[in-house]
Amino acid sequence: MKWITLAVAIILVPFCSFSQNFYDSYIAELKVDTIDGYVPTFYTPGSYTIALELQQTISDAIRFYEKESLDQFDIKLAVLDSAQWPSERVPFGYVFYSSGWIFMNTGMTYDNFKNVYGLADIYEQIDLDLKKSGISPSQMIQSFYVVYSIHELGHYFISQISNAKSPDRWTNEFIATYFSYNFFKKYSESSLREFELFHRVHKDFYQPKYSTIADFNDVYMGMGVENYVWYHSNFYFLVDALYKCYGSDFISTFEEMFPKNEQSVYEISEIIQLLDKNCNKAVENWVKALEAVTVK
Ligand SMILES: [Zn+2]
To answer: Looking at the DSSP assignment, which residues form a beta bridge with residue 76?
Structure first.
């Protein structure tokens, strides 16, 4: 039987090392410029300003959270345009965390942003709200990505540093947004306001194909970036509600609710109940409103 074990090992080992180091090798093969620092940054030439802003914001968030944690953060940042984006793995428009890397794009014009996120039917409403608030489209787009860069850092924090294990994809996504929200509440309320403007209009006016928590867990990124971001627009308001009842302590509460060594599998209804413990059905009501969007 030994040869079978060996054959399996030969197949698995190259696969594992390949997947662990995929983004290291990917970046190594690109023609990118770099900015040294606590968060080593690799960016498409010509995108220094946005790369530096993302690097600084991520470094500030690390300093903010390192005060409360014993572990040091060890993360790298890639800021790439659509030509250099690893599209075979993750479609352009998504930003993501994987294997010690945060992947951000170099930003978009408003027209590109509308195309990528499917805003043809709702951008007039966004324009109205932007005008009312005195916020420009480019400010909104910049805050969109800056706030999501800390959401991606949140994925790193939850998976590598915290004592929590998200029980499903839904919780794993909104806790990353909570991580970002909690930082921006103290760091830059104006970025959060610009971020919120987009997500409020998107939540209320975009017509999604999927809107249940079960579909989010099952279909996930396979639903396409338009519908996927719509869920995230809703997660923002769930996080807002959680912040109102748990304040800035919610990450430690989340660690206690869903500890890393926990083996149980949770039903969505159990998760809702746990989250609602001090929230007077805020989570249950949020889920009901979300799921009602696609109920005919
Ligand atoms: Zn995420």
So the answer is: 101
What average pLDDT does the chain have?
92
Distance 121 CA to ligand 1 centre (A): 25
52-81 mean pLDDT: 93
* Structural domains of the chain, ranges and CATH numbers in brackets: 27-292 (1.10.390.10)
CA of 7 to the centre of ligand 1 (A): 36
Q: How many Å lie between the centroid of ligand 1 and the Cα of residue 94? A: 9
Contact partners, residue 94, CB within 8 Å, separation at least 6: 221, 225, 228
**Using 50, 70 and 90 to split pLDDT, how confident is the model at 4?**
very low
* Distance from residue 2's CA to the centre of ligand 1 (Å): 42
Question: pLDDT above 70 covers what percent of the chain?
Answer: 93
- What is the C-alpha separation between 169 and 216, in angstroms, rounded? 7
- Does the pLDDT of residue 12 top 60, yes or no? no
Sequence-distant (≥ 6) Cβ neighbours of residue 191 within 8 angstroms: 143, 146, 147, 184
What is the separation of C-alpha 35 from the centre of its chain, rounded to a whole number of angstroms?
A: 23
**What is the CA(175)–ligand 1 centre distance, in A?**
9
What's the N-to-C CA distance of the chain in angstroms?
57
What Å distances lie between residue 266 and 2, 29, 232, 258, CA to CA?
Answer: 39, 42, 21, 10
Neighbours of ion ligand 1 (CB under 5 A): 173, 176
Average pLDDT over residues 190-217: 97
* pTM beyond 0.90, yes or no: yes
Ligand 1 center from residue 90 Cα (angstroms): 13
CA of 152 to the centre of ligand 1 (A): 6
Ligand 1 centre to CA of 119 (Å) is 20
Which conformational region is residue 102 in: left (phi greater than 0), alpha (psi within -120 to 50 degrees), or beta? beta
Q: Which amino acid is at 282?
A: A
